[in-house]
Amino acid sequence: MNLINQKMLLSGADYFAIEELNPYEHKNVQPDISQAKVEHAALRAAFMQAGIEVVKVAPPPNCQDGIYTANWGLCWRGKAVRSSLPNLRQAEEPYAKEVLNSQGYEIIDPIGRFSGQGDCLPCGDYLFVGSRYRTDAQMHRFLEDLFDCKVIGLETVPATDERGQPITNKVTGWPDSYFYDLDLALAVLSPELIAWCPEAFNLASRQAIEALPIEKIAVSLTEAKEGFACNLVSTGETVIMSSHAPILKAALEARNFKVITPEIQELVKGGGYIRCCSLTLA
Question: pTM of the predicted model, to two decimals?
Answer without folding.
Answer: 0.97
